[in-house]
Specification:
One of its GO terms (molecular function) is metalloendopeptidase activity. InterPro entries: Cell_wall_metabolism_enzyme, Dup_hybrid_motif, M23ase_b-sheet_dom. It comes from Nannocystis exedens. This is Peptidase family M23. Pfam families: Peptidase_M23 (PF01551). This protein is mainly beta and about 350 residues long. It folds into 2 domains: about 120 residues, no CATH class; about 150 residues, Glucose Permease (Domain IIA) (Distorted Sandwich), CATH 2.70.70.10. It has no helices and 24 strands. The strands form 6 sheets. Strands 13, 14, 16, 17, 18, 20, 22, 23 and 24 form a 9-stranded antiparallel sheet that branches. The protein is elongated. About 45% of the residues are buried. The N terminus is likely disordered.
């Protein structure tokens, strides 16, 4: 059986209507074991032991209570023998691990495999910070001395334990609605709406541009978890005050994953005030507006999108609680009051 060690630089950051890979360093690229997403083959470096992954039924924990029975034979007063049987239930062995939180490096995704091994192609990917339900813990392919894998409920499959952590956290409830990304009572003009002719096409079709002054607070449109951040463009950098398509990958941004498995996207930030994996509540400040990346002036590029595991995915229709679907030139006022 051939074992493999793969990696994927999945952080594809795009400007309004532009996409391209984000290069964060000119130095060597760090590689990660097979369970991470991959775009390129590398020579096998993973150390394995034994004959490979055991069968799926070779579970260390099954997710259900563990029951054991013991018997004791004693002599009765009349010289007979009596057997006493004791049954003990130890409880759910996954009680402390009902869910897993994905913990991968920035820009990476975690592969979900059809078996506890990297021998087969992934069936799905998970974004950093995502919560999934645990079904069982099983012995599988050994990677860097670790053979623990988890079976998960949805997407159905197996993930390597090296890139998840057990948690009692409850998954967030789906939002009751999405509010404007502006502080309570603030008004702003929509400078480009859905299907905008300037740059709102393709993945950005359902995006909105808000005309905002420099360093205007932007807030979360709904509760969620930060699962992508880019905050590398600062004063003095070529794309800090905007630029053409070549600056597309360098716009500072925040992406928040919500309980309905969609995410909200906020770009061109001057400052980012949240961290990867952080839980945020509706109305919480996530950063300050700016003109970083592919931009001609201070504004905020905001949209709701599918959860594809990357920073930028296909935008989907977004109707705000306060004003529905605003159009270009319309002034909107936020009721996003925590």
């Amino acid at each position: 059986m051939r074992f493999e060690r793969r990696w994927l630089l999945a952080f594809m950051i795009a400007a309004c209507g532009d996409s391209g890979p984000l290069l964060t360093s000119a130095g060597p690229v760090t590689t990660f074991p097979g369970p991470l997403g991959t775009t390129a083959e590398e020579p096998p470096t993973t150390t394995t032991s034994g004959a490979g992954p055991g069968p799926i039924t070779e579970a260390w924990m099954t997710g259900g209570p563990t029951t054991s029975t013991t018997g004791e034979v004693t002599t009765t007063s009349d010289g007979g023998l009596e057997t006493t049987t004791t049954t003990t239930t130890t409880g759910d062995p996954l009680a402390d691990c009902p869910r897993l939180r994905v913990m991968v490096p920035a820009g990476e995704v975690l592969n979900v495999r059809p078996s506890p091994s990297t021998a087969e192609e992934p069936v799905a990917t998970l974004a950093n910070g995502q919560l999934v339900e645990t079904v069982a813990a099983v012995a599988g392919e050994t990677i860097d001395g670790n053979s623990l894998w988890y079976q998960i409920a949805s997407p159905a499959g197996f993930v390597f334990s090296g890139f998840v952590s057990c948690t009692l956290d409850e998954p967030p409830a789906p939002p009751a609605g999405y509010y404007l990304p502006l502080t309570c009572g603030m008004s702003a003009k929509i400078t480009q709406g859905n299907d905008g002719g300037v740059s709102h096409q393709g993945k950005d079709f359902y995006a909105f541009d808000f005309g905002l002054g420099l360093n205007t607070p932007l807030v979360a449109m709904a509760d969620g978890t930060v699962h992508h951040v880019f905050a590398e463009t600062g004063p003095g950098d070529p794309c800090y005050d905007g630029g053409g398509p070549e600056c597309g990958p360098y716009g500072n941004l925040v992406v928040i994953l919500h309980g309905d498995n969609t995410s909200s996207y906020y770009k061109h930030l001057n400052e980012v005030h949240v961290t990867l994996g952080q839980a945020v509540t509706r109305g919480q400040t996530i950063g300050l507006s700016g003109s970083t990346g592919y931009s001609t002036g201070p504004h905020a590029h905001v949209m709701r999108q599918e959860n594809c595991g990357q920073s930028k995915c296909q935008s989907i229709p977004l109707s705000f609680v306060e004003c529905g679907v605003p159009t270009q030139g319309q002034t909107v006022t936020s009721m996003n009051c925590p």
